[in-house]
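Entry for 4'-phosphopantetheine complex. Fields follow.
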Amino acid sequence: MTTAIYPGSFDPVTCGHLDIIRRAAGVFDKLIIGVLKNQSKKGFFTTEERVAMIDEVTRELKNVEVVSFDGLLVDYCEAKDVKVIVRGIRAVSDFEYELTMAQTNKQLNGKVETLFFATSAEYSFISSSSIREIASFGGDISRFVPDIVRCRVEEKMKHRNES
Ligand code: PNS
């Protein structure tokens, strides 16, 4: 049984992430979505909110589990017997960062492999940060994120603008 982890910030999860999740869930026996608890950086959504949104949008995928983790990713992999790290590559601009991260993780734990999925062309320009920016100016994000996520982003923006 091969368990893989798809780690990330997911602030918030996008249609591009969901595309990778669905495809990776079809390849591995079990896929863990690992949301980084980033203590040093305050996110738009809390870790708990991000986990809850991913839980909702992956409900139909029975071999997917959503967790949060802190510390080194490879330590989490070791503790949970995860053999593969999944990452998506949208464009050449992602490559340097992803290669460095994969090589760093390999140095830290040689037993864990990183496998890259090429993002589907229709999602190659989507990022969580651009979603937040579009929404902050009142733009329409409905084509880029699942509907549940669109509602949560819009609610949060509204509360921010009111306070
Ligand atoms: O979605 P992101 O922000 O590009 O994801 C980055 C993430 C969470 C995969 C990466 O920052 C990570 O694995 N952090 C945990 C700490 C760690 O293991 N660092 C060493 C690898 S560079």
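NOTE: Residues 7-9, 36, 72-73, 101, 104-105 surround 4'-phosphopantetheine (CB under 6 Å).
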